[in-house]
Protein 1
Amino acid sequence: MTSNLFFQSDVQNPYSIYKAMLDENPVYWDETNKIWAIYSYEYCVEILKNNKAEIPLVNPNNEQELNECTLEILSNLTRLSNGIKHEVSKEIAMQLFLNIKSVDVGEIISSLIKNDLIENEIDWVKSVSKKLPVLVLLKSFGFKEDDCDFISEKIESLIKIMLPQKTEEQTELLNNNSEKFYSIVEKHFSSLSFYDSLLIKTSNQFNLSIEEIIPIAVSNFIGLCIQSYDAGSGILSNSLLQILKHKTFSNRIAIEKSVIETLRFDPPIHNTRRIAIEDFYIGESQIKKGDLILIVLASANRDPQKFENAMNFNIERINNTENLTFGIGGHMCLAKYFSIHLATEAIWYLFQNYKSISLLENQIQHEPLINARLPKNIWILIQ
Ligand code: HEM
């Protein structure tokens, strides 16, 4: 049997693996990798909502030898925190989101396309998916051009901070870039009008000093950039592929419905992890304190008990929004609507401004990642 932990780049159709597991072993102990893998919708929801299952620690005892600044960012990220730390960092990340200003997505995407279009051909992943979400985020907070350039160029090295295991090279790049990232964000934030009141409000709310809140705010903004780069790029890439395949681009509403159905049918994020902090049962399986758990969101999204004709792409299915791609419960993604809106705007811009858009390759390769299924390149011809 294929391992429950595999690189998406090594597997052509992960959904056939998920289907087999859903049918045979919806709660499965993977002895090789020493991890539970959960495949059904019902049990994935149960674990995501279970407070005896927490986010596993990345880099315990600094085994990855991260420098002080990288450690500071990592230890403050809401995405990776539990308990009171999570409450504080999530509130600050939410406050940041509340202060996001709307920007003209069309203007940004049009210049990205103009920069890289050669003889009407462009790699949608490299030129748009990987750049647009981070740029929109940065411009929504008013970052200057040269800061946008630095962050967009170096963000790829920063996203490795989330990996449970890092190579020496990844750690070195992270350590080399984190300080400059941190200082750019810290400096820019201190010039923003809402920042002081955000600091005061959260410092009063959690009885922490302003000096304690600042690193949480700066780190979590860097966290938002990181998540925009990988998950944000995936929604743009996967949605375009499905929309082209199913020709569901007649109007803006059809595109938005297609983005939502893509999130169910072919999501960028396939799984997330937990660790049991106490014993508990899932169905008849006893999960022991300390056990690791892989929650296979992409399999839950194709559970026929939840979605009728789950293997079919159908933008009109009544409950498509109930996909688990953004998680559920206390750690649910903060950027669900931001991401859906951005992908809809970007793809609608493409279909409004070009008469014909066609794929130039049939076989899409994926990044060598375990948790995310992200196309490496999508070459398209636009006319
Ligand atoms: C399609 C795009 C995206 C997907 C599929 C996605 C998916 C997820 C998932 C599955 C989680 C929950 C993880 C868990 O419970 O273990 C999560 C959390 C989070 N996401 Fe996203 N995400 C996306 C885009 C973004 C973007 C663009 C941002 C930032 C701008 C973002 C910010 C966050 C944050 C801050 C959390 C942590 C929330 C918390 O700690 O409670 N996400 N996301």
Note: DSSP finds 14 helices and ten strands in the chain.
Protein 2
Amino acid sequence: MTAIDPTGQVADWWATDISNIAPGVIELRGNAIAELLRERGFTEVIWLLTSGGFPTPGQRRLLEAALVASVDHGPQAPSIASARMAATCGVGLNNAIANGVNVLGDVHGGAGQQCVELLNAIVAEGADSEEALRAVTRRVVTQWQQERSRFLPGFGHRFHPVDPRREPILDLLHEARAAGDIAGRHVDAGLAVEAVLNEGRSRPVPINVDGVTAMIYGELGVPPELARGLFVLGRSVGILAHAWEQTQQGGRIKGPVPPSILPTYTGARA
Ligand SMILES: CC(C)(COP(=O)(O)OP(=O)(O)OC[C@H]1O[C@@H](n2cnc3c(N)ncnc32)[C@H](O)[C@@H]1OP(=O)(O)O)[C@@H](O)C(=O)NCCC(=O)NCCS
């Protein structure tokens, strides 16, 4: 409250629990920036700002793995390709990054949000045996496919028969559970969905990066929408690196394919 804001209404307009900024002061969640700079890493500060506390070493390890897993998938990924195309249009790195981030949605890169929802729905049923978990999972999966989509979020991949991020993340999750860092209920739920989805299938549809990172976010208690935000944060690193590389390589108005290849015209003469 000040003389020009006697009721504090103006100061409260952007009231925040995150940062306290005043002349000569920068505090994040009550921690002086000098302490954070000396003692903490970027992953810990991401957790501090988004969740309000410091992660345990086990939580930090898992969050870091989720961020690293989502960092890049090369120029065949629309988020990377569209950032690289933008970088050849003379718009600057900030626009190129925004372009890449803007295509991260329910189908590309953003399925983790729905996958956390799916796993939360299974975990909420509190199944207390493997058989009960399988039955609950069947019911939740059927309901999801009837009401939302036959494509379960966090499963399948356009060209990886098995997503190379699946095994290493599952290993970390199993280690974290053995160390008592996580309860493991979202891990069990994810593996149960994979088993149910693949019953009777000759070509399996395994968990993808969005699925294994959703297991991490679920175990860490991250809300679904925030899980997508964290994926975007990780992928932004790859988007930036590719936009910067493209900027250095040059190239002007690069389209999605070389100009010698023309899209097939399927229309008739009007
Ligand atoms: C990523 C994705 C678009 C790849 O699809 P695709 O390679 O074109 O797979 P197809 O559409 O050819 O599907 C092949 C088969 O697997 C099934 N399938 C693939 N992904 C599936 C999923 N997530 N849930 C249920 N079934 C799935 C299809 O129904 C199809 O079955 P059919 O042969 O009996 O018809 C698809 O798996 C998907 O939408 N996944 C969910 C969204 C997601 O997690 N996206 C992040 C990807 S990293």
Note: The radius of gyration is 22 Å.
